[in-house]
């Protein structure tokens, strides 16, 4: 088949979304399909988003340059606004600022006006899709809650899944992620200040919160126990996973969360929160990790448990790896589902 994958491109912003898009395109090509990826520039800001929605809707993706497209598979807002008679949407997330992150008491008039436009845009295009999938149960829940639509959760492996391994436990807790408010590194650092054991925490990643987190570490006098590494390579990240005792992922309302799956592939249990969204689809409290309330004290207790009982923590990690493989997460399953919708 001649397939067109539509997604977004945000210059100089890299992360899991890029791996998702690239992974799908590569998988479709491995199965013998002719695939092109159309990535639309994405810029935040209400006026930019209005123009981007209008631009997506007017694109010709049926027979651009007289080259007939058999099927379109769309992943992101507003790229799923393209029109094609055979259109499958595998939703990574909607424009969250207009849905679960929208706060009417804090919203500007421009965002309030955009919210109704985004909702109308989604109603037009998500309802018309031939097949509708979500990349996690949490994304499917939001579609049901806000748009009244049923979507089948469809999991995919993290980037270079086969390269994650488990090695000697060096006793630290690891959290790799962008340093942004929704990732809640600050909550984890506050928890570290309440631990009763000499737990060590390693954070990797870059983002807007770097200076604030450095100040918080200094405020709690945690300089000897909390390390901000900054950006690390994929190889370094996998090494840090391999030697960790456990992985922390106390994010707020995550869509999917590669960190959970990367931890499971590394045979490491995950410490996450009851309101963390995507990770709670895989982390089972007391079986593959800890799911605790989003408070410093609750997280501190989980950190202490992970540190204190090494054998039990390692058992949780082995259970996590078994659960990952039992889920049958593979690109083969993804391609089969998307092309037979």
UniProtKB/TrEMBL annotation:
Location of the Glycosyl transferase family domain: 172-322
The UniProt record lists the keyword DNA damage: no
UniProt xrefs under Pfam families: Glycos_transf_1 (PF00534)
Record-level Gene Ontology MF annotations: glycosyltransferase activity
Keywords: Glycosyltransferase, Transferase
Enzyme Commission code: 2.4.-.-
Keyword Transferase assigned: yes
PANTHER family per record: GLYCOSYL TRANSFERASE GROUP 1 (PTHR12526:SF635), GLYCOSYLTRANSFERASE (PTHR12526)
Protein's name in the database: Glycosyltransferase family 4 protein
Organism: Vreelandella vilamensis
